[in-house]
Design a protein that fits this description.
mainly alpha, globular
Amino acid sequence: MQNQQTPETVSPCNGKCVMDSKTNLCSGCFRTIEEIIGWISFSDKQKFEILTSVAERKRKLLHSRN
């Protein structure tokens, strides 16, 4: 059975793919390279966990820049 994305697990990729050497995160979607590469094979549960982490990373990084 193919792993189909639900609205809750759609990839956060926004096409602004640049890895930040200081954070080791993509500056567009705030994922690690491992999370980006593995996304297609992760379960919905794993994707949801990553999306939760992404939201927290983004909040912290954007807050620290201000």
